[in-house]
Each structure stands twice: as C-alpha cells, then as structure tokens.
Design goal:
Radius of gyration: 23 Å
Low-confidence stretches: none
Structural class: alpha/beta
CATH class of the largest domain: Alpha Beta
Strand content: 15-25%
CATH architecture of the largest domain: 3-Layer(aba) Sandwich
Distance between the termini: 42 Å
Strand order of the largest sheet: 10-11-7-12-6-13-14-19
Number of domains: 2
Order of helices and strands: HEEEEHEEHEHEEEEHEHEHEEEEEHEHHH
C-alpha cells in the first residue's frame, strides 16, 4: 500500500504558477486519507479567484494518476484566501484579510467603474468582498449600484454596510443629508471620515476590501496608507501617454510610503465596432455581419509600456464600450446586467489577476514573518 509520504512526495512536484512554490509546502493538501488503493484529500487553493485554479487541479490529478497503487481518487477542491497584510499588528480591522486601494493619477479614467466591477467580479468567484467609496467629495458608488436611495444604519456604535449583489458597501453618499449636496470639508475632517468608515464599520469577515480612492495624491490616499496595514494599491489609467505619466505620480507616492503596487489596469483600452456591414456572399448577393474592427481611440498599450518601464504587473485591459457606461448610469453594472459579455469577462480576468497578486504578496509576507521569527 502506498504511504502518505509517497503521496506527498508526488504532490510536491506540483508548483503553484503564481507563488512558484510546491502546493505541499504551501499547505494546500488537507485531510489526506488512504484506504487501500483509494485516496481522499482536499486541495485548498489560495483564492477562489486564482487564474490557475483549473490548471493546478489538473496537475494534481495527473500527479496522482502516476501512482500505480492508487485506483480511485476522491478529490475535493476548496479555496481559502490568504492574508495579504499584517493582521497581527492591526487591532482595528483584524477580520479583513486584504485591503486593496484603487487609485489613479487623474479623474476621468473610470476608476470608480473599475472599482465597482472589480468588487463584483471577486464576489462572483465566491470570495467575501466589501467596497468602500472613499471619495468623500464626489461619492458615486451608490448611483452605480442603483443604491442612491439607500441609507446606512448604526448598531452598537458601528456603521452597518449596505449590501448589494453580494458585496458590502459603505459610502458617504448613503447619508441622506449629504447625498445631493456638495461636501465642503478641509483635509483633517475628510481624513477623520475615512478613518471612521474603515474602523467603525461592521465589515465582519472579508477576503477583500476594495477602497475606491479619489484621484490624485491628496489627504485620503495618504490617510489610508498611514492608518492601517494594506495589501497594496492598484493603479487605473487609460492608454494615452498623458494619463500614464500622471499615473506614475500616484504609485510613486505609495512607493515612498512602502505600500506595494499590485499592478496597473488599463481602462478604455480599445473599442470594437459593432455596426453591421454588408459583405459579398461566396456565390451571389450580399449578407450582413458585425464589423468587429478594433479601434485604439486613446492610443495603444500605454499602460503596458508604463508597467514595463517601472517593473510593474500589467493586470489587464478593459474595453471602451457603451454597455459599461450605460450599466453604471442605470445602477446595473455590466457584471450584473450582462455577465457573459466580453466586457464582463475582461473584468473577471482583471479580478483574477488582482487576486493572484494578493496571494503572491501574502506568501512574501509569510516568508518575511518566518525570517523575522527565526532571527
């Protein structure tokens, strides 16, 4: 009969493509049981949103198939999101595993649209997700989620998030007296509001908290970086060089604060023509089909070039499409209104890449903590 050590030795040849580590050394093999020629265990992945989940499972099955003594495999696949920040030193948000700030160097690049759909995409994979609208001056998350008439409640001195499409949402726009008024506050007050939203909210257990930051490098991004440990920052830009050059200032600030830059998302990457055009048939007449031609309206690969220049991860591109804009204006984001569309799939790809970066940073953090304990 095959031994547990033999099985683990075989499984140790399976490497997580993101973490570059054996799934055995990462503790992904749980509850392993051998009963004669039958093998049973759980494969616990680092996030339900990992882009390589299917690949890892196939590699595991292939590895076990190489063991001749095993005739039957009962494999259960689950996921447990890794902690990408130092929860041991954070007494204010000890139940939130990852905090991801979504930043931009300038307004008008679709940062909030990306934040909303990123949160929805992560939730769609099965993760527990929260969304904090940290743009106090111009909160637009409630409108994009069709929650502009919602209001937050307070219970036991804690703000209670409003739930929408499986995510927990907090926004200054939920306060009735502020929803349709301009917020006129100085920096210290704005910083105080953000701190309250972070630490005085009943977020409960979250795998990911997405924080939609206002554009630029002002008080709110600085407050987030200095208040609690965060996993990292995602920078949103558009393809043109002027937007990319300004985005450099955004991640430059966080680098000075020793906050990891998880990568760059390019919004409005390209436009695909959907007009119908006439084309000749092979034998006679004409027929109609959709054009399908891709137009790079704001330039091509600006975010990729910026990522390569500054050694950052390119997390993916989001197309320019009226459906995304219409979904945001109507309160039904494209992940909700058209989940199988090309636009939705682009957000799902970006979300999986963001989740993968969280796992990588969590693994690095774990190694650092082990090294510190050893020394």
């Amino acid at each position: 009969m095959v031994s547990v050590d033999q099985v683990l030795s075989t499984l140790s040849t399976v490497i997580d493509p993101d973490l570059k580590k054996s799934i055995v050394s990462m503790g992904m093999i749980k509850d392993l049981e051998i009963n004669g020629s039958e093998l049973k265990f759980t494969l616990e992945l680092t996030t339900p949103a990992c882009p390589f989940n299917d690949e890892i499972e196939q590699d595991v099955r292939k590895a076990i198939a190489s063991i001749k003594e095993i005739s039957k495999l009962d494999l259960k696949v689950t996921a447990k999101v890794m902690e990408g920040r130092s929860l041991s030193v954070d007494q204010m948000l000890p139940t939130v595993k990852n905090i991801i700030g979504v930043a931009s160097g300038k307004g008008g690049v679709g940062k909030t649209t990306v934040s909303v759909n990123l949160a929805l995409a992560l939730a769609k994979t099965g993760a527990k997700v929260g969304l904090l609208d940290a743009d106090i001056y111009g909160p637009s998350v409630p409108l994009m989620l069709g929650m502009d008439k919602a209001a937050m409640e307070v219970d036991n001195n804690k703000l209670q998030p409003v739930e929408s499409h499986g995510i927990k949402v907090v926004s200054f726009g939920f306060f009735a007296e502020q929803a349709h008024q301009a917020a006129i506050y100085r920096g210290p007050i704005i910083s105080g509001i953000l701190k309250q939203f972070l630490v005085d909210t009943n977020w409960s257990d979250l795998d990911y908290l997405i924080v939609d930051l206002p554009p630029g490098t002002g008080d709110i991004p600085l407050t987030l970086a200095q208040t609690i440990p965060i996993t990292g920052i995602v920078v949103v830009t558009t393809p043109q060089d002027v937007a990319s050059n300004i985005a450099v200032k955004a991640f430059g600030m966080f680098q000075k604060l020793n906050i990891p830059i998880m990568g760059v998302i390019e919004n409005m990457s390209y436009f695909t023509c959907t007009n119908e055009i006439e084309v000749p048939k092979r034998l006679w007449g004409k027929t109609k089909k959709k054009c399908g031609k891709i137009h790079y309206i704001f330039g091509k690969d600006g975010a990729k070039r910026m990522s390569e220049k500054h050694n950052l991860q390119f997390l993916g591109g989001i197309p320019l499409n009226p459906g995304i804009m219409e979904g945001s204006d109507s309160g039904r984001p494209v992940l909700v209104s058209d989940p199988n569309s090309t636009m939705s799939q682009s957000f799902m790809t970006v979300a999986k890449n963001v989740a993968a970066r969280c796992s990588v940073l969590a693994s690095q953090l774990g190694d650092e903590m082990k090294d510190a304990a050893a020394n």
